[in-house]
Amino acid sequence: MVNMQELTIRRPDDWHLHLRDDAVLASVLPFTARRFARAVVMPNLAPPVTNTAAALAYRERILAALPVGAVFTPLMTLYLTDTTAPEEIDRASASGAVLGCKLYPAGATTHSAAGVTDVRRIDAVLARMSERALTLQVHGEVTDPAVDIFDREARFIDQVLSPLVERHPRLRVVFEHVTTRAAVEYVCTARAGVAATVTPQHLLLNRNALFQGGIRPHLFCLPVLKREADREALRAVVAGGNPRFFLGTDSAPHARALKEAACGCAGIFSAHAGIELYAEVFEQLGVLERLEAFAAHFGADFYGLPRNSGTLTLERRAWSPPASYPLSPGELVPFRAGEQLAWAVRA
Ligand code: DOR
Ligand code: ZN
Question: What is the pTM of this model?
């Protein structure tokens, strides 16, 4: 695959995406819709999308914000709280538009204050999700401030995720945005029905990047970037073509002023290069021919959805993301702003 100039793949899906709402939604959605046929849309709006009616209304707003001619399907999720009722799972399942429910441990990340304080409280909901074949999408970090931030994912596996997966043997679970060797090992050895998404930033960068020549707020996301050995484990597992690991950008737009602040928000915006960044990773790994399965097969197969029918062509053409994209209000600093990318989506 040396010197490949062009790569045509089945149209990919983004299995973890933040689109927000209103004007921000309108600004960011075209980037995703141009590349991906479907995306799993995260429900951490303010207020969060905690019920089926809200998810269906949000879905309509997304469809209304699509550029003319775009072919894109949003796959909706509900935001679990301590008080989610099992009947809500029935309604979500009956709607046909809700793919799963997102577990945010309360306080773990952006807009997670209404999340679950103790997963034991939602066991009845998880049981109903197993029955209705809705997938649980998990933000896998403990929130105990006494636990070192770099250990929160590993601790979550032992204390929360592994017991939960065993208590609900038929529940399908996606461990979102895995960042550590511990998570890779867990997912590789977990029972059937457990998978993971992997972001571009956790494949491309380690935690040194956060402090390269000064503090880099635009590289702050949660889970935070980890050490090089963790990045190596992520790269090795995707290079190996393990079908339990698939594409989820976690693209998460925040206005520049909220990132460049005394207490900056977590989130990296990557939708403008949502497939190009992974092409770079797979090329670095010498397995560009495996990009298609990671981006367009494994996730669909895990979720039991058809693979997309269209194609997307990437070409070797250097380009630089701009310093910022307009956002109303403010502006959005994209991942790799001003730096060169080797791959571009063919117009
Ligand atoms: O960095 C992050 N940003 N991690 C999350 O879990 C949430 C996301 C967001 O919504 O901004
Ligand atoms: Zn996310």
Answer: 0.98
Residue 135 beta carbon below 6 angstroms from any ligand 1 atom: no
* Closest C-alpha among 33, 35, 41, 49 to residue 15: 41
Closest residue by CA, ligand 1 atom 2:
267
State how beta strands 194-198 and 173-175 pair.
parallel
Distance of CA 316 from the midpoint of ligand 1 (Å): 30
259 lines ligand 1 (CB under 6 A): no
pLDDT mean values, one per 10 residues, the chain (347 residues) = 83 98 98 98 97 98 98 98 98 98 91 92 98 98 96 98 98 98 98 99 98 98 98 98 99 98 98 98 98 98 98 98 95 98 96
Sign, Cα dihedral of 188, 190, 191, 193:
negative
- Domains belonging to the chain, first-starting first, are 12-310 (3.20.20.140)
Nearest CA to ligand 1 atom 3: 267
